[in-house]
Design brief:
This protein is mainly beta and about 120 residues long. The protein has one domain: PH-domain like. Strands 4-3-2-1-7-6-5-8 form an 8-stranded mixed beta sheet. The longest helix is centred in the last third of the chain and has 9 residues. It starts with 8 loop residues before the first strand and ends with a helix.
Length: about 120
Amino acid sequence: MVQAINNQVDLTMSATWQRGVPCYGKVMIGNKGFEFYNEKNIQDYIQIPWEEVTYVVAAVHFKGKYIPRFEIRTRKNGNFIFSVKEPHRCLKAMTKYLPADHLRRALSYWQKVKLRLLGHK
């Protein structure tokens, strides 16, 4: 059995970890970090302490009405992309533990095209 890193859990909801093949499970946001547990394989999990998170980047569409996914960027372990049923609640729960400058909006399609045309990568 996996030991949770959180002492207090603020939010639990269904989620999808997008890593090539989608992995379905539960997301837990608590006082020590962000956790994802697979529904079918209990040994397939992620535990990200808040100190390890550099940015949370959300893909925002239609002026904030639709957020299909968000990405958690860490210092050492790479990036993790998640989709949840209620992304507004999930991101709001993260703001309790992360500073406001750690939450970012992803670039839009046209912003990416503009950067490519100007020669930036």
